[in-house]
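Appendix C: a fully annotated inverse folding record. The material below is reproduced so that readers can follow the format used throughout the book. The structure is listed first as tokens, followed by the designed sequence.
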């Protein structure tokens, strides 16, 4: 099991969009978007319905690819063909509708899709020891690995707090309440 070490480059968290366009057939969802997102600041995307906010987030999350233009993360041009590619580049997206498994702790839900595995008796099984070692290395707060987490925090807020487990460069909550 391997986890990325914290990055030490000076451009950590820098996002650059250069003339990014997304078309769905004849419909232009995003047109020639150019912007630098400076690290260490909170940025908000605001605009009318149909202005391209959701399209921009989908491009950054690796859900869809731009028709043209360039997206750079930390000074490197990126081509995300999947959410996994975006995640590997340090982009963490917290979706408005979280699909949580109620039988698991919030911390275990955070690692869903990337739970460490091992082999036992020839079968692939979750490496719970490895998961808890990853938890110990993570900056997960609010009792995220407790079976009965603290009252007052919604599952979405606990999961958002725990998404920093990877030392992500960019954390993009979709829901403004997240």
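Designed amino acids, in order:
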């Amino acid at each position: 099991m391997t986890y990325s070490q914290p990055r030490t480059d000076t451009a950590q968290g820098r996002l650059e969009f250069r003339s990014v366009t997304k078309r769905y057939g004849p419909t232009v969802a995003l047109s020639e978007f150019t912007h630098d997102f400076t690290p260490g600041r909170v940025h908000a995307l605001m605009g009318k319905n149909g202005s391209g906010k959701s399209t921009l987030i989908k491009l950054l999350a690796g859900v869809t690819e731009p028709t043209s233009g360039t997206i750079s993360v930390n000074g490197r041009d990126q081509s995300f063909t999947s959410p996994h590619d975006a995640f590997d580049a340090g982009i963490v997206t917290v979706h408005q509708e979280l699909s949580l498994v109620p039988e698991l702790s919030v911390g275990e839900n955070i690692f869903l899709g990337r739970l460490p595995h091992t082999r036992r008796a020839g079968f692939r099984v979750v490496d719970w020891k490895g998961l808890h070692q990853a938890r110990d290395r993570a900056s997960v707060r609010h009792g995220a690995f407790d079976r009965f987490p603290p009252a007052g925090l919604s599952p979405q807020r606990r999961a958002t707090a725990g998404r920093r487990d990877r030392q992500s460069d960019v954390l993009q909550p979709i829901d403004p309440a997240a």
